[in-house]
Amino acid sequence: MRHFLRRHQPSPCRRRALKAGLGALVGLAAVALLGEWAGVPLLIAPFGATCVLVFSVPESPLSQPANVIGGHLLAASVSVAADALLPEGPASLALTVGLVITLMAIARLTHPPAGADPLVILPGHFGVDFVLAPILVGSVALVLIATMVHRLPPRTAYPLRMPPNRI
C-alpha cells in the first residue's frame, strides 16, 4: 500500500515553488485584466490547471507552448463541433473528451488541462468565437507570461529548446 502513497516528485526548491505560485497569480490576473479591458471574459477553469503545468513543471513536454496553445485550440475546436453535431448529455461529453484526448495524442499536442475544455464548452453551448477568446487569447497570454516569469531567478529553461534536426 505504501507505493500508492509515495510521492514521486523530487523535493522542490522553495524559491522555485514560490515563483510558480506567484507566476500563476500574475498570469491569471493578467488574463482576467485583459478580458476586462477587451470586454470578454477570458478566465476558464482549465487555465488554472494550465498554470500548474507552465509555472510549476515547465520542463514537462505537456507544458510547452505548442502543447498549451495547440492542445487548447484542438480541444476547443473539436468541442464546438461536437456541440453542434451531438445531442446534449453526459454521453456526448464523455465521447468528446475521449476524442479530444485521442486527437491530442495523435497530433503530439497533449495538454491535460485542455481535456477539460469540452466540459466547459458543451454545457455552455459556446460557439466558434470561444475558440478565439478565451481559448487562443488566454493560452497565448499564459505562455508569454510563463516565458517572462521563468527568466526571473531562479531561472528555468522555458520553453525547452529542441535539439537540432528535430521537428
3D structure, described in words:
- This protein is mostly helical and 167 residues long.
- It has one domain (14-149).
- It has helices at residues 2-5, 14-38, 45-56, 65-85, 90-107, 117-124, 129-149.
Q: Number of DSSP helices?
A: 7
Distance between the first and last residues' Cα: 42 Å
Low-pLDDT windows of residues? none
Classification by helices and strands = mainly alpha
In a few lines, what is going on in this structure?
With 167 residues, the chain is mostly helical. It has one domain.
Helices and strands, with pairings:
Blueprint: H1 2-5, H2 14-38, H3 45-56, H4 65-85, H5 90-107, H6 117-124, H7 129-149
Question: Which short descriptors sum up this protein?
Answer:
mainly alpha
